[in-house]
Amino acid sequence: CSSLLNGRESKRNADGTLNLPNKNLSKMDVDFLYHLSIDTANFDLPAMFGDVKFVVMGGTKHRMREFACYIANILGLPQDPKPVNLTKASQRYAMYKVGPVLSVNHFIGIPSMTTVLQEVIKLMYYAKAKDPIFIRLGTSGGLGIPPGSVVISTFGLSGTLEKSFELPVLGVKRTWPSYLDKRLSEELVTAASEFKKFKTYAAASMGADDFYRGQGRLDGPLCDYSEADKMEYLNKLTSLGVRNIEMEVTAFAAITSEAGVRAGVACVTFVDRLEGDQVTIPKAVLNEWQKHPMFIVGAFIKKCVENR
Ligand code: R2B
Ligand code: URA
């Protein structure tokens, strides 16, 4: 929440509103944010979303509804027993607003995450939200750390071990750096220090494009490498400082950075991949562990709101 300038801030307007680099946007009479079922003609976006300070994203609709209820509780805001899904009409994603917090789901993997992420970035732009911070609350497989631990990502490493997000654009392979906001990752680590029941690590995360072979698993329907090959790869990731594997970090880091938005990623680990591939922990325990990153992000947001 501190206000030191860094690379991302310098891309925003002086009042903290987003200054998106796509000049085509200003030439459009109306912008339809198709996957949100929200547009700039029929919705008063500054009135609806202008006060948003935190956009918290995560894979499942259920988790993001739970986070909306959790954050209302810890910020002492009125609890809505049935939070309204503001993007229900899209029949795609779920998005809840609680005071200054927008809680949005993105499902699994980079394409579904970047689709909603880019529309929410435009939403914040049209709403003239000031200095919105984006945080992904996720799940992951750990590398050499106890399951249930949280990893606060410092940067994303691709499946080919590059610190970048790769996307073909107009037939050409393009890459963008996948660093997260350093100060935000430090602030999240500080927020984590009050929680003693689980460990928190600040480390690199690998963003895979697949759950099975893309993460070196032996238990998918298809596998064309040996256990030794798998271990060599996972040990290499570990030696590079990677502590978890998930499926969105590179794109989340790259897109937010290019848009001038401060962003962080906090993921719980469900399995130690150096020990095995399957997630065998009982559902009730997984549901408890999923709350670990929520506790950290909740404490961070609460502190920011109190210090404002
Ligand atoms: C972690 O968990 C999901 C796959 O199970 C994926 O969205 C991710 O990044
Ligand atoms: N999510 C992943 O992407 N990988 C895991 O191993 C667990 C959750």
From TrEMBL:
- Nucleoside phosphorylase domain location, by residue? 53-290
Q: Which domain of life is it from?
A: Eukaryota
A Pfam family reported for this protein in Swiss-Prot or TrEMBL: PNP_UDP_1
Classification via NCBIfam families: euk_UDPppase (TIGR01719)
In the record, the note on similarity to other proteins reads: Belongs to the PNP/UDP phosphorylase family.
The name this protein carries in UniProt is Nucleoside phosphorylase domain-containing protein
What is the protein's species of origin? Chilo suppressalis
